[in-house]
Amino acid sequence: MAQLGLQGDLGYAYRHFLHEHGSADDIAQHEGFHRWVFELDYIESQEHLLEAFGPHGTMAPQRKALSHDGVIRGPAGEYDPGNWVYAVMARSLFLGLRPGHPLEHYDHHKDELLGDLFEAILGLAIRVRDGSANTTISRAVLERYVSIIEQCCWCVEKIWAHMQRAGWWLDSRTTTAALRPIWFDFALDPHL
After folding, report:
1. What whole-number distance in Å separates Cα of residue 43 and Cα of residue 56?
2. Around 153, how many Cα atoms within 13 Å sit in the side-chain half-sphere?
3. N or C: which end of the chain has fewer CB within 10 A?
4. Is 72 helix (H, G, I), strand (E, B) or coil?
5. Mind listing the pLDDT tens digit for each residue in 35-89?
6. pTM attached to this predicted model
7. Burial bucket for residue 106 (CB in 10 Å: 0-12, 13-18, 19+)
8. 137 DSSP 8-state letter
């Protein structure tokens, strides 16, 4: 794939994507990406699960083992969307959190760690479902984390698929920087 040099190229690709698949407002309403950011912020402020799996968190030693079990559920079954998808999703989510949030600095980590954070939560949920793990976090809250992760990954995967069709490649940081104004302009619109 060709490496894109300008964020404007991705902006063009995204506008083309919107033209093919509906208006920006339709996609924002359908995807609800900004709402998941706010919900993640709320859940994380209560449970601190992402923080617990972070580099200095209480569950950091279990992060890698649990991440190997972490997959998302899709129409064709369970799969791993890859660290790039998780990293774009993570960086977008973390940048949308309220100022001073303990996770806002996680944007500086490598794609692998960002992927592992979310895969560990998914892995924990799978183990809780099959009875091989216990947690103090309620199953309902854990399933809500899973739902947010899955929905956000599917949104990022749609952009990734369009970029692949166009033969384009951007690293996760550049992609997040280019998409952030588009996604978070919706979040700031009081009419949504």
Report:
1. 20
2. 24
3. N
4. strand
5. 776 777 788 888 889 889 998 899 999 999 999 999 998 878 899 999 999 998 8
6. 0.79
7. buried
8. S
